[in-house]
Amino acid sequence: MTFTKRNKAIHIDTEALSSLALVQAGLIHPVDGLMNKQTSQEVDKNKVYKDMPLPFSFILAPSGKRNFEVISSLKAGEIVDLINGERKVGELTVEETFEIDPEQRIFNIFGTNDTLHPGVKNTINRLGKMAVSGKYIVKYLPVEDNIKKVKNTIKETGAKKITAMMLAANPFNRVHERIIRQKLNHSDLVILFLRKPFNNDGLSYNIRSKALEKLIDKFLPKNKVIVVPLENTYIFAGYNELILDAIVAKNYGCSELTVGKNHGGLSVYYSDNEINTIFNECEYGNLSINIEVVEEYVYCNICKTLVSSETCPHGSHHHIKYNSNAILKLLENGIIPPTILVRKEVSSYILSHLFPNRFENVQNLYYDLFPNSGLLEDQTDESFYIELINLYQTSSLT
């Protein structure tokens, strides 16, 4: 699409464009478009839309003085261009414009207005005071390509039972792998939705994606596991994140969503003297997806393997926990994690890309330290880290 002069223009960022594309593609079904004032207020109050759980309304209220002036001037039936950067990415036929309370909108999404919350801080800067509803069409290839990838894989494999996992993989560790293997025992296909945030914190998406693909290529059945990027827009934010995850997984064709028991979005509350989670809300309506909450896994230095913290008979003082932040700190400081935490193939790839050309002459260092065939072969930082881990695991002198 190219920029035209005939219409007024609303400028949207890529995060808003991605969200509009998800809805347009039917991945947030039954949401099928932007909500008007009455519908959005009903959804925000009741947390239900068309008999389906929905944490908050779907509206378009972009920030900026120019957008405020344009939206305020729009009339019903008017066509407005949607602009991302300097490029026209869609059109919207106006149904209604209406004022919103940005503070209340933030609270509906995150359950808090505290600006120390990173989601609140990022979203409040993107949110304007005027919303517009109406039919729209947008062009956004990433979403279209993801749908094609999943549909083609399901068709090629004939998969019926399809399990979804939402991963940050920041970084991918042994517990992730254990859960994937468990799901492969009972699934025709496992779809790993790898979160791709717009405000990156930690490893870049490309590093995480490539590391995950390398592990799948070498250690998992490639015809039964695929990685699909999931752009982590504001609609997946806050304490209601898992409901949106379940809706997206269902609309991609998954029959099950697997989440960790310690997932931050698995909100726990008391009702009628019973412990409930946010997934109790998914038991009514037409969501029709099985939700499995898996136990926390740890490495027990008595059992000498990965175990469930609920079933291991040894105390927590014998347990090594898979804390992603701690593992990431090691990598960010150039330290290769022990292989009981992260496979060497994963950590070596990550380090070689976090610290490119780290060694002055890796070729000489490689041949000075490690056994070799005697033939001169090109060595990379990645192969150096793998051999270094192998050397750490030599045990006769320890």
UniProtKB/TrEMBL annotation:
Keywords on record: Nucleotidyltransferase, Transferase
Keyword DNA repair: no
InterPro entries linked to this entry: ATP-Sase_PUA-like_dom, PUA-like_sf, Rossmann-like_a/b/a_fold, Sulfurylase_cat_dom
EC number: 2.7.7.4
Sulphate adenylyltransferase catalytic domain residues: 148-351
Pathway the protein acts in: Sulfur metabolism; hydrogen sulfide biosynthesis; sulfite from sulfate: step 1/3
GO-annotated molecular function: sulfate adenylyltransferase (ATP) activity
Occurrences of domain ATP-sulfurylase PUA-like (ranges): 6-135
A Pfam family hit: PUA_2
Taxonomy, superkingdom: Bacteria
Stated name of the protein: Sulfate adenylyltransferase
